[in-house]
Amino acid sequence: MRTLHLDLDALRSFTTGIALGSFARAAVQLHRSTSAVSAQLKKLEQQAGAPLLVRHGRGLALTPTGEVLHGYARRLLALNDEAVAALDGAHWQGEVRLGLQAEFGEQLLPAVLGRFGRAHPRLQVEAQIARGAALVEGLAAGQFDLALALAWAGPALPASLSPQTLAEVPLCWIGPVVGGALAGTPAAPLPLAMLDAPCPMRSAAIAALDAAGVAWRVAFSSASLAGVWAAVEAGLGITLRTPLCLPRGLRVLDPQVHGLPAMPTVALHLHRASDSPAVDALATLVREAVATQVAALPRGRAPRGRAQASGSSER
């Protein structure tokens, strides 16, 4: 086995160019010249012994070798950044308070807290799972430093809590992995499993079904998302959520196949109510974890429009 020492700076240029869809934009973001980035890519291809990129239409696509290197590059850079953060923040002390919506608790929270805890062993993270509106209200009351929540129409937030949009994610009809055709007629109304009202996503589902002339009934209602997931997996009904962090046993339903209305996208917001190096570090990990989840979403047809969002979050 040959011994190679991959250049982390070159790997960062490589992964940044793939993420931005342009190595010219990567050069700008990384404050390097385009020729320097090109030289780094050429060096990586020489080390790999095969092309990493191939022309695809007007852009570039990863070759099989490029896909392998891209996966390892992201892991190497994440470990490097974690090590640097650990050295910088090894002596930080205190507490950071994080709020998350329920769908992010099972998959995103352990990954974020694990990396943060290893890098900053003297810092304590207080995490709370709540509905989006409660998270924003908690921010305004000083209960959280950071909160990750889906945006939805509602009253405007204070200027100090203006959120950062991390992604636009589709609203999807969610059903069990095992299940037949869905019904939606007056004789057999479509069964829904929803969070208790008031819930903007519940209202959006009902409004869309009414507009499409699809008969429905609320077959299951729960105060917790875990209860809704269990009901959907058991076949009691379908629900409307985003495909982010979807539990096993559930799948995104094709609206055309099942006679369901197409739905818009909704913004995913990261709110912050305080500034400190520790909050900055945790916010960076949350953004990276969300980016990984969004990148894993299947690329399908463009959703219809966008759900209006004026700053309030989904309940």
Automatic annotation (TrEMBL):
Say yes or no: keyword DNA-binding present: yes
Question: Keywords assigned by UniProt?
Answer: DNA-binding, Transcription, Transcription regulation
- Specify whether Transcription regulation is a keyword of the entry: yes
| Domain of life from the UniProt record | Bacteria
Q: Can you give the residue ranges of the HTH lysR-type domain?
A: 6-63
Q: Which GO terms describe its molecular function?
A: DNA binding; DNA-binding transcription factor activity
Show the InterPro entries listed in the entry: LTTR, LysR_HTH_N, LysR_subst-bd, WH-like_DNA-bd_sf, WH_DNA-bd_sf
Similarity comment:
Belongs to the LysR transcriptional regulatory family.
User: Could you tell me what this protein is called?
Assistant: HTH lysR-type domain-containing protein
